[in-house]
Amino acid sequence: MTIKRRNHGRNKKGRGHCSSIRCSNCAKMCPKDKACKRFVVRNMVEQAAVRDMTEASAIPGYQLPKLYLKIHYCVACAIHSRQVRVRSVTNRKIRTPPRRFAPRR
Asked: What's this model's pTM, rounded to 2 decimal places?
């Protein structure tokens, strides 16, 4: 039987089973090694309220805390929300990770 991917869509390699996680979007049970994982760092307050908070702050130069989230997507939700894209048969063979963009300052 032909295979579509070299790793069968998983990152297991020699383990029999792995733990399951819930998709952050649809709550579907998905193997942890198959899920698309994203680490999101964002401000606790939206951009519109940041200026009001800094003006009202009693401590000068106070740094607002950030929200650190690890988001797990099932494959269907990752494709639907465009976290990952469908690649052609020849492009699936390319194993180098995509180029990372420098964070905005």
From this structure: 0.76
Maximum alpha-carbon separation in the chain: 67
Beta strands 20-22; 36-43: pairing state? unpaired
Q: How far is Cα 57 from Cα 71, in angstroms, rounded to an integer?
A: 31
* DSSP assignment of 8-46: TT---SS-S---EEE-TTT--EEETTTSEEEEEEEESS-
What is the per-residue pLDDT across 65-93, written as a single tens digit (0 to 9) for each? 999 999 999 999 999 999 889 989 899 88
Burial of 69 (0-12, 13-18, 19+ CB in 10 A): exposed
State whether the Cα torsion 69-97-15-29 is positive or negative.
Answer: positive
Amino acid in the structure at residue 80: H
